[in-house]
Design brief:
By secondary structure, the chain is of the alpha+beta class. The protein is built from five helices and twelve strands. It has two domains: about 160 residues, Deoxyuridine triphosphatase (dUTPase) (Deoxyuridine 5'-Triphosphate Nucleotidohydrolase, Chain A, Distorted Sandwich), CATH 2.70.40; about 100 residues, no CATH class.
Length: about 280
């Protein structure tokens, strides 16, 4: 297998062999530059520019956007020639990615179609005649009779492509809509649940207030009972003391001491009455 160089390439091109539509200035030492011919934009309506029937001749390829480009040049390879196609370094360094360049089989006739994605940070301007690809042509040791033709570009193939890399714009929009729908549902749930929450909180506060009121009353009753209990204990003790004094008085003959005991009993009676809880 032999790589064709400038002189051989120029001779073939001049005789409309191997490649058709090549400018002399695009033939290099052992490669030929291939240029932009037609630009197809995925997502274009059939009657609009960029569609299969109305390809564009120039286009600003946005960041992440996708186009299909048909080369201006046409391959006319014979049975003893094959080619290899790769992106020109001048466009690759600027962020253009091409998904389907590669080898071209012997006997291939037709234009090349490549899918181009702008992976750079800035829009990339494309127009008819711009250098996009490079090809190297090889002469084989033996010839092959197997014919290969170019797959026609049609609307069905174009519709399979997303207008942007991985269909990111649509995915972002769908995700945004889902998030908005989710927020709307949450807002509806909040609005529906708010009256119930308010009712629960109100009922809880009412129960708490009732509990505190009852607790306060119970504490007051307990305090009063403790006071009454203390008063009863004092009265009982005074009564017992009075009983003892009575017994002593009965055993004591009428003397000044007996009189004093009687006076003490009168004082105890007064104290006992004072100690007894007053009935409401």
């Amino acid at each position: 297998m032999q790589l064709l160089t400038y002189t051989e390439l120029s001779d073939y091109v001049a005789k409309y062999k191997l490649l058709k539509g090549v400018k002399e200035s695009n033939i290099r030492g052992c490669t030929v530059d291939l240029t932009v011919g037609a630009i197809y934009v995925p997502g274009s309506s059939p009657d609009k520019l960029g569609s299969i029937t109305k390809p564009r001749e120039e286009w600003s390829l946005a960041q992440g956007a996708t186009v299909v480009i048909k080369t201006s040049e046409k391959f006319l390879l014979g049975g003893r020639h094959a080619a290899v196609v790769f992106p020109a370094s001048s466009v690759s360094l600027k962020g253009l990615l091409m998904t389907n360049p590669g080898h071209v089989d012997p006997n291939f006739e037709g234009h090349l179609h490549v899918t181009v994605i702008n992976m750079g940070l800035q829009p990339f301007s494309l127009k008819k005649g711009d250098r996009l690809l490079r090809t190297m042509v090889f002469e084989l040791h033996r010839s092959t009779e197997l014919n290969v033709s170019s797959a026609p570009m049609n609307e069905e193939l174009l519709d399979r492509l997303s207008p942007d890399f991985m269909d990111m714009n649509k995915r972002v929009n769908d995700a945004t809509m889902r998030a908005m729908d989710s927020n709307d549902r949450r807002n509806v749930l909040r609005q529906a649940a708010m009256p119930l929450v308010i009712a629960i909180v109100t009922a809880g506060l009412t129960v708490l207030a009732g509990y505190l009121s009852v607790k306060e009353k119970i504490d007051d009753r307990i305090g009063r009972l403790e006071t009454v209990n203390k008063e009863l204990n004092v009265a009982v003790r005074l009564e017992k003391l009075d009983e003892k004094l009575k017994q002593i008085g009965e055993l004591t003959p009428p003397t000044p001491l007996a009189k004093q005991i009687e006076e003490m009993r009168d004082e105890l009676t007064t104290l006992r009455k004072a100690a007894l809880p007053k009935r409401p």
